[in-house]
Each structure stands twice: as C-alpha cells, then as structure tokens.
Design brief:
5 strands, alpha+beta, 158 residues, Zincin-like, 47% helix, two-stranded antiparallel ribbon, 3-stranded mixed beta sheet, 5 helices
C-alpha cells in the first residue's frame, strides 16, 4: 500500500496485467499488441540477502530511504508496510517483478501518502523500476497490457 487506505479501484486490473506479463515471460518469444516480443527472462533471487541487495541498490540510486526485505509467514502474497518501510516476500516472491512491485509502493509512499495504492503514480514507478533494472521490454509490455485493461499509465521517464 502506498498511503491511502480504502478503495483501490485499479488493483484487480494491475494484477491482471502482471499475470499477463508473467505468462508472456514464461513463453519468451510471442506476438502481442501488434508486434513480436522477446521478453527478458525473469530474474529470481535465490536468497533473501540477494533480494535485500537489489532493494538497497534501488533505494540508493533513487536517493530513497532504505527498505528492509524479510520473509513473510505464509505463501499467500508479498506485502509492503509503509509504517516500517518493510517488504515482506512470500515464499514464491523472490522475483524481480514482485520486488519492484513492492519497491514501487515504497517509492510512492515516500513521495506522498495521498496516492492510491495501485494508481497512476505507482504504475509509473513500477514501469521505471522494471525498465531501469534490466527489463525494458517487460516494462513496455506491462504498460500496453495495462492500457488494454483501460488503466491510464504515463510513460516512465528516462
């Protein structure tokens, strides 16, 4: 969550777009959105220390406050807690996509507590993080998937 508690009207569509991206990454080469794609393979963090290093470097590059990455009890979902700047990764959550999803919450929470959890500002940060961290094709694919789901998402900067 970024800061606003309550309605998160874009949540389901955001997760649907991410599921589409995950399926496309599993396929690798495909045709979608009127073009051919060769998506980057998913980066998996084999240890919590590797995920923490990734998150720490992302925070340093943005000049953001550090975030703690820990394991989450249970397998249901990963989560970001703005109260203590902690990302709790589910057992399956050691992927770049999951970690940048939660990091986007951290960065938007630092910018403003008045942003919807999965609103346009969050989606922009998510795409920036994917593109900057070795997955520019995934970022473009996800932006187009969200557009198809009628989620307005500004193009990321840089």
């Amino acid at each position: 969550m970024c800061g606003v508690q309550g309605p998160d009207p874009d949540r389901d569509a955001v997760y649907d777009g991410e599921r589409r991206l995950e399926q496309a990454v599993d396929v690798g080469a495909l045709r979608a959105f009127g073009r051919s794609w060769q998506l980057e393979p998913e980066q998996r963090f084999r240890t919590l220390a590797a995920a923490q290093t990734f998150a720490t470097l992302a925070c340093l590059e943005r000049g953001a406050a550090p975030v703690l990455v820990r394991h989450r009890a249970g397998d249901r979902k990963s989560h970001y807690s703005p109260a203590d700047a902690t990302i709790a990764l589910a057992s399956w959550g050691g992927t770049r996509l999951t970690l940048v999803h939660e990091l986007a919450h951290h960065f938007v929470a630092e910018e403003s507590r008045d942003q919807p959890s999965h609103g346009p500002a969050w989606r922009t940060r998510m795409l920036e993080l994917l593109a900057h961290n070795g997955a520019p094709q995934q970022a473009t694919f996800l932006r187009l998937a969200w557009a198809e789901l009628e989620l307005a998402t500004p193009r990321p900067q840089g």
